[in-house]
Structure to design on (132 residues):
């Protein structure tokens, strides 16, 4: 009985820790893409792992003409985020809908991920939902 309770308690603690972390797969606010956030050293990155339009979708809006023919699947759209208190900051986010890069920060708000892109003092915040 003790072992069963201990095992159950460990499983609950493990799940709680996982659900509170930013690592994992997230649906973008529009629901048209899924991004997998992963850690590389002390930085966080996020790559596209699913697209509503399909895996052959190209990066046609990229400002670099050489990259407009690449597939968006596997492209890192989040890069270089560093942990600072309750947020991950100092990184970049790439918006494939307009081909531009922005400064970025992310943080958890309950079971949702807030993703904020900056241009100077102006910003836009999206809410991403975890893939279940």
């Amino acid at each position: 009985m003790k072992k069963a309770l201990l095992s159950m308690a460990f499983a609950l603690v493990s799940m709680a820790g996982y659900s509170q972390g930013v690592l994992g797969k997230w649906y973008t606010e529009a629901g048209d893409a899924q991004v997998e956030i992963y850690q590389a050293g002390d930085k966080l990155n996020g790559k596209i792992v699913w697209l509503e339009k399909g895996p052959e979708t190209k990066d046609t809006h990229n400002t670099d003409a050489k990259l407009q023919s690449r597939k968006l699947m596997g492209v890192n759209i989040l890069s270089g985020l560093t942990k600072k208190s309750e947020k991950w900051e100092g990184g970049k986010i790439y918006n494939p809908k307009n081909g531009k890069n922005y400064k970025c920060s992310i943080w958890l708000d309950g079971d949702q991920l807030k993703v904020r892109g900056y241009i100077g003092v102006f910003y836009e915040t999206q809410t991403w939902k975890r893939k279940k």
Remarks:
- The chain is about 15% helix and 50% strand.
- The two ends are 31 Å apart (CA to CA).
- Confidence is low (pLDDT under 50) at residues 4-19.
- Residues 33 and 51 are 4 Å apart (CA to CA).
